[in-house]
Amino acid sequence: MKIIILNKEFEGPYLNLNDIKTKGGVFVVVTDSYGLTPCRILDTGESGNIRVMLSKHRREKNWKKNSEGYPKFLAYYESSNNLRKQLKNQIKREFNPICTYS
After folding, report:
1. Which domain holds residue 46?
2. Which residues, in sequence order, are bridge partners of residue 3?
3. What is the distance between the alpha carbons of residues 6 and 28, in angstroms, rounded to a whole number?
4. Which of 98, 100, 34 shows the shortest CA–CA distance to 66?
5. Burial of 93 by CB count in 10 Å (0-12 exposed, 13-18 middle, 19+ buried)?
6. Which long-range contacts (CB under 8 A, 24 or more apart) does 59-64 make?
7. What is the sign of the dihedral through the CA atoms of 33, 37, 42 and 44?
8. Helices (DSSP H) in 27-80: which residue ranges?
């Protein structure tokens, strides 16, 4: 399945981190929503290896605390460090994820 965020096709949502590739990219942590949108963005970030970053992330407890059920993960694979940072910052500005600054 593909999810479009800021005109980029993200893969997911995944419940299992093993489904995420060990590649560089931008991740988005989402949870179910019961409003006008099908999901709510909890957090975003970027890394040279998304799966490793998510498996050791310091805000994991915040994701679980703020989730309706279990947090789910979206992935957009991008090798360019600069492009990853730009996209992560755009997502933060546009969606103001609840866990990003905690």
Report:
1. 2-95
2. 10
3. 12
4. 98
5. exposed
6. 59/99, 59/102, 62/99, 62/102, 63/29, 63/31, 63/99
7. positive
8. 50-55, 60-65
Q: How do 8-14 and 25-32 pair as beta strands? A: unpaired
The bridge status of strand 72-77 relative to strand 39-47 is unpaired
Residue 102 inside a domain? The answer is no
In a domain, 100, yes or no: no
User: Hunting for tokens 């299992």 — which residue is that?
Assistant: 16
What is the count of structural domains for the chain? Answer: 1
Tell me, what DSSP letter sits at residue 16?
A: S
Residue type at 35 in one-letter notation = G
pTM, 2 dp: 0.89
pLDDT tens by residue, 36-87: 566 788 999 999 999 999 998 888 788 778 887 789 999 999 999 999 999 9
